[in-house]
Amino acid sequence: MGAVTDDEVIRKRLLIDGDGAGDDRRINLLVKSFIKWCNSGSQEEGYTQYQRMLSTLSQCEFSMGKTLLVYDMNLREMENYEKIYKDIENSIAAAHEKIAECKKQILQAKRIRKNRQEYDALAKVIQHHPDRHETLKQLEALGKELQHLSHIKENVEDKLELRRKQFHVLLSTIHELQQTLENDEKLSEAEESSDTSMKADDKQ
């Protein structure tokens, strides 16, 4: 029964290891130590083999724990990347809304400019009107209207400039986030390459 139990433990270790960091080699060493322990001739030799088996089991358990920690970290990283992706999507949607709003404001500014040109043309016609007093009143009213429209235009132009700056900052942020994601992917690939190299060294 003891041998069967040990075989089950070894089989479980091999299944857990997969392509772990050299646990297959440690399991092979554990099997050899177990065979030597079974065939040990003296109590001292048996105790030595027993201590070796305990040490190898401890290394395998440590490696398994480290693998689980890496797995949990990768899960958290994936959740973080998903959050960043959603934030980027929301930012892009907000940018499209701001662009649409800016287009509306540009159309409004064009209408204001057209109205101003029409008012200028009308003012020129009024200047030739024979009733000077009435013409002056009309010109004064038109002047106020032009001043009001000028303020509106300035406000619209200021808002447009602000929207352009905000959109530029947003695009820069999106670019930086994309660069960060690319750098993280490159770093992950470098770490995987380093792990592969370490595995190859362990097998040698």
From TrEMBL:
GO terms for biological process: mRNA export from nucleus; mRNA processing. It comes from the Eukaryota. Its main location: nucleus. Keywords: Coiled coil, Nucleus. One of its GO terms (cellular component) is THO complex part of transcription export complex. Component of the THO subcomplex of the TREX complex which is thought to couple mRNA transcription, processing and nuclear export, and which specifically associates with spliced mRNA and not with unspliced pre-mRNA. Required for efficient export of polyadenylated RNA. Plays a key structural role in the oligomerization of the THO-DDX39B complex. Belongs to the THOC7 family. This is THO complex subunit 7 homolog. It comes from Phrynocephalus forsythii.
